[in-house]
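Late entry, evening session. Most of the bench is empty. Finally got around to the prediction I had been postponing all week. Sequence below, unchanged from the version circulated by S.P.
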Amino acid sequence: MSDNGFDLAASARAEMIHEGFSPDFPPEIAKEVEEIVRRPAVDAYSVRDLRAFLWSSIDNETSRDLDQIEVAERTAEGVRVRVGIADVDATVASGSAIDAHARSQTTSVYTHVRTFPMLPSELSTGITSLNEGQDRVAVVMDFVVDARGGVTRVEVYRALVRNRAQLTYEGVGPWLEGSAEAPKKVAAWPGLESQLRWQDEAAAALRMGRREAGALEFERVESRPIVSDGKVEGIGVRRKNRASALIEDFMVAANQVMARTLEAAGVASIRRVVRSPERWPRIVELARRNGCRLPEEADSRALSAFLVERRAADPLHYADVSLAVMKLMGPGEYVMVRPGEDGDGHFGLATHDYTHSTAPNRRFADVVTQRLVKAAIDRAAPPYSEDELAAIARNCTLKEDAARKVERTMNKRLAAVALAGRIGESFDAVVTGVRPKGVFVRVVNPPVEGRLMRGEHGLDVGDTIRVRLCDVDVEQGFIDFER
């Protein structure tokens, strides 16, 4: 894929190499994939058979690596939710060439012009993907959500499942919000509409429970390059809707269930943590300028209340405040936690019990967690030592940071192409970074990021300003603004 003579796909591959990835699968992996394809189907008698349930998935329109499916039912105690996660470990043997590559890369990287999968596409979008109409083995997290968002009657087990309907955020969200008809696939399956509404009810309760505990709710506006016939035609916007919120709520709950299950089993695990913000004083200042007083010590419950108040008081500009707080909080990381240890926890989710387990087709930490819980279910010895888990956690954090850099650079290149004809135009922007190498801003519409070349003095993260686009460089991924 090229644009104006610049090969964007080739530049994505080069960026991967620059950040320490190996974008091409080693030759021995092809042989392993051939052997996997020739294997017989999973033995239905070795796991619970839940194929009769009305499972469905909800994901992006472009998603092909389907990691999770869901089903819900009404009970006397609340809504019983089952989240099925693709059992990647059932296909990818520990110590295999595929596993070694995944352990080294740790994550899939998405650049819009090319995807660099952690696992071969024959697996991640085929055999280990919970594709519609296919029998698959899954790790199921089964729990009841009560009216106040409490999670009870937790069980984790393996099962044979079948995705009845591959749905999308774009289709389900407007229907749940009452602005569109039910998607055709929903209408085609008797009972699916009801159980999706139960899912929505359970998700709302989970969200309320997390909010009361002090979890933060951000408004994320994601840029989406508009590409046609190999040409970048513009930058669109992807916003969170009720369907994407539903899946996010379920994945958070499932990850908490998994962390607590491993803790109860008495095994070390990899946790996902977000530490208390080092730049809390700046968050306090940002809140003060918006008419709210926050305590001097980091307090997720107080910050959550501020964000809720801002969303209600000024929904038009809430995304700016939300983005600034996210940037000031800093990124998450992976750490090894021994059973009984009181780790740093996840500040944004206001919980000490959180891991990553719901995306094993695209994150190696999730594969590791899957192997740990399967061993615990079988009452077998843990498949990794504490030293191994610590090393894997460090590498996952490093590679996640590197993947973020690749994706950010490619987003800038695509945005530079889209904005090349708009030099001289003015935009509203919010300051997203103040570093020794410069001040960075994110334009509100279209949502692209660039460097402030002039007028940067005295600014800090969260400031809203008016900027003018003064230059772009597609090859370097530079988008330059002036105040």
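Two things to note before I forget:
The mean pLDDT is 92.
The chain is about 40% helix and 25% strand.
Will write this up properly tomorrow.
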